[in-house]
Amino acid sequence: MMKRIFSVLLALILPVQAAVSQPADEAGARKARSIAQLQSEGVPTIDHLPTIEPESESTRRDTKAVVQRTIALAIVAVKGETGDHEMGQALIRQFDATSFLTPKERAFMDDPDPSDQDRTNFTWRYEGVHVMLWALGITSELERPDHICDVPFIANTLRELGTDGLMRRGKLRPQKELLDAADLIYRYDWAAVNARLKGEEPPAGLDKGVVYERHYALNWLTGYMDQDWDDISTDT
After folding, report:
1. 104 lies in some domain
2. Region Disordered: start and end of each range (predicted)?
3. What residues make up the domain containing 87?
4. What is the reported pTM?
5. Domain assignment of residue 1, yes or no
6. pLDDT in tens, 81-108
């Protein structure tokens, strides 16, 4: 009788243990896949770089928020690239995007003569648009971060679809895919930063600017530390 009771208790306890350990296994398996991919590309890795949060602890953005972020990033990138203040204001009106902008983005868009450094920083946001279009399923894949994104494609896509079209067409990828991409870029960024600290070029042809911008965008997408867009950390 006691043996049977023990068996029943064991059966009750074991599934709970499996459920508790599952997130750690998920995160560990994700880390292992990322490391294997980087090693196959000749990108240095470091084993004690932590896992990222499992799916159960990550933030799931809604499609509307991602679409609005896509539009905002595209608008600030266009002004960064062209320096055209009037065009920037026209784009805000065209996409009805005033509420999409963060405080830092709004300050940049309101400045008729931003600094060259500000323009450069915001031009890089095209890479964030690329990530968002991938997350929404508008583009099929995130290629290796060794080249800048296709800006004419981004411009044509947003011109063709607009905010409403992005809302209709966009379907946020499964959280697992977003976390896989976030974990991988986290490790790419460690390799790029490590090379910079050693006074070396980024390994395996990586573009450090592309890596950084993707890391930034993917950390926002997965809710890293619950930070707002203007305050995203890209810790490595």
Report:
1. yes
2. 44-63
3. 63-141+151-169
4. 0.89
5. no
6. 999 999 999 999 999 999 999 999 999 9
